[in-house]
Amino acid sequence: MQADVAGRHPAQPKKSLKSALKKPLRNSSDGRRSRRRRRLQQLAGYNDGNTEYDSGDEITVVSSSPLLTPTPPTVAVSLVKLYPYLIVIDKILNLLTWNNEDGTLLPSVLLVLSYTGTVCYFEWMTEYFGHILIIVIIWLYSLLDKYVNVTITSYPTLDDIVHVMGRVSHKADLILAPISVLNKQDIRRLLFTVAFFSPVYMIISKIFLTPRHLLLVFGLYVLTYHAPIFKSIRKALWQFKLVRLFIFYVTGLDFGGLTYKNQNPFSKAMEAANLVAKSFTNANRSVEFVYVLFENQRRWLGIGWTSSMLSYERASWTDEFLNRSSEPSSFRLPHIDDADSHRWVWVDTEWQLDRTNDGAIHLDESEPKLTSQPTLNDGFIYYDNTWNNQSSENTFTKYTRRRRWVRTAKLVNTSIEDAPPSKVVDEKENSSGGEVDKVSTHTPDEGTIRERKVSFSELQNVHIIPDDGYIR
């Protein structure tokens, strides 16, 4: 059972923290318990009016915290006990983020120098100055303890504790940001890439860099990651495509958008469609766009078919131009500039699998070509290890496969009041008598990525036009 802060018997009913702290101690001659009670009163921000607390040779006037009344006593006491550790963690995070309270970078620089000296000369230092290092560690602990006590005395209320907790949370998120942005698929790709380069790592660690040097490089990278000068250097180096390409092949992660064009054909098509939206004045006229996503998988020996791809090949989900795309569950319609009058809405209720894979698989006329609940191997086209020699049959020479998901979206005019609910508009027949512009897309040849253009003319249909001029 939790000890009572005012010395009451545990069987007695619980009272508020304010009344517990206000109750006199049974043994007033116990100086240690008296100082503990005053410290709890200071940290909880309790004051019954103009109460002054003696802290050694000085008098400290503590104002009441507005958080004291709504905070349960057990929570307040827990925060009080946690406060010193929060101060220590906040100080460590200040050093790692190069964000010291006095604005100087000297403590972080000393930390980097200390780490470098410890890693490089650890054996020599422990052999000749090990006894002195113990005294230095004790001295550093005394300085840290003094810093904690000064901070507790200067900022003794619950508001200060909550403020420190917020700072610790923000700095921890800042340090963990490079890792927290990685999803499960990125971690798998990183694991496969690192495992693939294991022989290279062994050669480097045996010939060029010893484990001590690797530890030094890794530690310095972590300690200086948030240093202003190194942030500027990384930003300048990141402008070179060669650097981004090197990071991509080493980690398997596309941090610099290497798998995307500066503006891929799919985004060009959407921008062109958004331009058409500005010219629509007829409420009965609409545009439909068929979104296409490809699900790519690779077969691993002993594992089977998974969405884990090699670092240098296409992603597990791509658009029809082989650019990385979101999964269907997280796919979002684009936002257009003229959002006040037009917006994109889904015509289909959910994504559907094209069982014919854009005509590559022949089905009976009685079988449905689209389905929203496919089987595990339904609709896949199989390829060899280099995504060539496609086939509808799964053989022992096939190591990659993909299938096609489609969903139709419609550009609607939101400025028209009392507009009927949107429904699927047929390409050849429109029951409302309006004109329909159908935006259709097609799959490029395997192994190649061709730039395509979208032409919006006075014609009713919008076609995707390859560079060779042949209209599909």
Automatic annotation (TrEMBL):
One of its GO terms (cellular component) is peroxisomal membrane. The keyword Kinase does not apply. Residues 286-354, 379-412 form the Peroxin/Ferlin domain. Residues 424-451 have a biased composition (Basic and acidic residues). Its main location: membrane. GO terms for biological process: peroxisome organization; regulation of peroxisome organization. It is a multi-pass membrane protein. This is Peroxin/Ferlin domain-containing protein. The gene is KNAG0D03380.
